[in-house]
């Protein structure tokens, strides 16, 4: 469009929401949303997090998303302006997860030459709170006292499960996913990480 000496170029960028749902290959289902969500452990949580990002950035063009927009998004999460579906304020760790997902999506846009830089890289992620807390002996005894069957007898299987969680520090889902093959001959345990794709252990 030529307006005197001022030339306005036709916008070549696409909306963020269109990029997320657009096919990246000839396979119609191979869009970013599908690749990011389907088949991932914790699929429901991942889908919810990605939808939050789409609601906030969806109507913006990829090349207009700036570090200031990302900072505003981070501030809205930490302040409670944007809340979880249960109405709670996001923990810094959850904010980091959302920012990491946004950064991954924009990295994909860079790979496809849709943007020249990733604005999330310019944003400092919130520091993590110290979430380490160990139950006292009294608290643990009270927890074990709740391990009873409907008939009032002791549920020894549940007691052993609770004791295992306390002594190892593994997550409930990680413990439930273990098999005898994860008990190694040297006495160590092999814990499958459930928050990442593929078979990764720690």
Q: What series of H and E elements makes up the topology?
A: EEHHHHHHHH
Strand order of the largest sheet: 1-2
Q: Strand-residue fraction?
A: under 5%
First-last Cα distance: 58 Å
Number of helices: 8
Architecture overview:
The chain has 202 residues and is mainly alpha-helical. It has helices at residues 16-21, 32-37, 43-57, 67-79, 92-111, 137-145, 156-168, 172-176, and strands at residues 2-3, 6-7. It has a two-stranded antiparallel sheet with strand order 1-2. The protein starts with a strand and ends in a 26-residue tail after the last helix.
Summarize the topology.
Elements: E1 2-3, E2 6-7, H1 16-21, H2 32-37, H3 43-57, H4 67-79, H5 92-111, H6 137-145, H7 156-168, H8 172-176
